[in-house]
Amino acid sequence: MGKEENSNHKLNNKTNNEKADARLEQYTQSENLTNRMGQIKHKIMVLSGKGGVGKSTVAVNVAVALAMNGRKVGILDTDFHGPSVPTLLNLDKARPSSDGTSILPVEFVEGIKVMSIGFLLQNQDDAVIWRGPMKMNVIKQLLSEVNWGELDYLVIDFPPGTGDEPLSVAQLLPNSDGAIIVTTPQDLSTNDVRKCINFCRQVNVPVLGVLENMSGLVCPHCGNVIDIFKKGGGETMAKQMNVAFMGSIPVEPLIVDASDSGKPFVYHYSKTAAAQAFAKAIEPILDIKEKQKPSSDVVLSEKKSDTTLRIAVPVVQDRLSPHFGHCETFAFFDVDVENKKILHQESLAAPPHEPGLLPTWLHERETDVILAGGMGQRAQGLFEEKGIRVLIGAPSDAPQNIIENYLNGKLQLGDNICDH
Ligand code: ADP
Description:
Blueprint: H1 3-38, E1 40-48, H2 55-68, E2 73-77, H3 85-88, E3 97-98, E4 103-104, E5 106-107, E6 113-116, H4 117-120, H5 132-145, E7 151-157, H6 164-172, E8 178-183, H7 191-202, E9 207-218, E10 225-226, H8 233-240, E11 245-251, H9 253-260, H10 265-268, H11 273-281, H12 283-286, H13 295-298, E12 308-316, E13 319-320, E14 329-336, E15 341-349, H14 357-364, E16 369-371, H15 377-385, E17 389-391, H16 399-407
Helix pairs in contact: 1-5, 5-6
The structure holds adenosine-5'-diphosphate (ADP).
Adenosine-5'-diphosphate (ADP) is lined by residues 48, 51-57, 84, 160, 213-214, 249, 251-252, 255-256, 259, 274.
């Protein structure tokens, strides 16, 4: 090999290794995300069309009310530009700790676990320059690296509107239970709320219901609720939009006091009409049944052993098929990743290449990972939805060599040669 050729060869190997490292890191992060989220029964998103309607107040009080019903609860605050959960819980000075491999959330009353972007920012202005993909990465990291342990509910608070943060979570948690949409009576008929509901529909997040906040005033003298705005608007709007109505929380000056002093309102003022309204609003959330088999959230955690994986390789003429959609058979390998061993292998004829069939077929055969040459983005998304990780750019080699190299960390991944 000439000098120039040799250095090109080294350069190629270096970029290949970097690509493989990046893919492996991505894979490990996705696996962590799947496992961690698999320990959480319900993920509830709290959204609003615009700011100032009491969304964070609702997120915190819904979480505390769930915990007061004996549920194990976590709160995740994803607001980069105005994380208010630490202030609402008087945790401004708190910082999450680490056990060396994961981030440990801050503990609050009733065993509630709290994680906020606010804990990670040195000062509020830090977030201003953050753009979509960076936010997506941080949120992914929070979902995959925070060790929540087993939870019944993770309540996720977002910035107002339908920006990068809820979009990222909707993509990363395709099995979330749904969103509570918070609005005030004055905003009920505005486009913001409809936009929010339509956003949920577009990204496949079920709408748990609309919760009307600051509707009616609690009289400080007699404690009765005075309806300042016409009553019933929330219900009418919910009916029109075909979503559930979760109730109305009145304007309650004690909520402002409690928020300003970092005390969760429903915990300290449980006898008030507003706290009772929160208790009523969460009834349907308490009743949500655990999903039978939320595909991508629990598949990996249901494996027989934590160190075994089932890998599928698309094959044509005894070698990896560079074009995923053109394979004749699939070679399946059950491997022990810790001991770097192939435990079992078999080959099955590929099913007809009809749209949407392969993700289900491979999922039914308990595939954890696909090692492919090339695959289109849409197909990759369909497999991810089923909890199957896809590694692209594997060489057109004999399947057994590919698996052995994979287990020994020697697999060279190149480009996606078939991105259609
Ligand atoms: P958002 O998250 O929608 O921007 P916040 O939860 O920060 O809104 O609430 C905005 C302000 O309204 C806070 O001062 C909060 O204490 C107050 N607030 C929220 N809900 C109520 C309510 N039902 N009654 C009185 N004040 C409320």
